[in-house]
UniProtKB/TrEMBL annotation:
Natural source organism: Sinomonas terricola
UniProt domain MsrB: residue ranges: 24-148
UniProt name for this protein: peptide-methionine (R)-S-oxide reductase
Keyword terms, alphabetized: Oxidoreductase
Keyword Oxidoreductase assigned: yes
Domain of life: Bacteria
Amino acid sequence: MSSPEPTPDTHVPYVDRDAASLRESDWRERLTPAEYHVLREAGTERAFTGEYWDTHTKGSYRCRACGAELFTSREKFDSHCGWPSFWAPLADDAVVYLHDRTFGMDRVEVRCANCNSHLGHVFEGEGYGTPTDQRYCINSISLTLVPDEE
């Protein structure tokens, strides 16, 4: 059974709760080639090229693949790394973590808990100056910013 389509007067963005069951062929149809590369193949956009790395708009950041709310502007900070950075996800269960040893590095990958799409990585260190000593370095192309209503 598929999820109902959102109505035009819906203020809360649509979340596709069936996204986890989509086949890769479905994702290829739903996403642009660049979105597919990052979200489904764990690619990375180039630093300082994404639409949200230097954005200061207040709002929520949702998974571009399924619409699940992941981060908010309250936890976003300027890390000057070239990608949007957050010191925590919206909720502990909004994201999942995987050990990533690609390219000879030892990192922690961050994925959307709803649809398992790749978002970026999380790094720990006291030098970040955040309440959690963490930097969630997230690809802009993995996110959709929904501005707060004034």
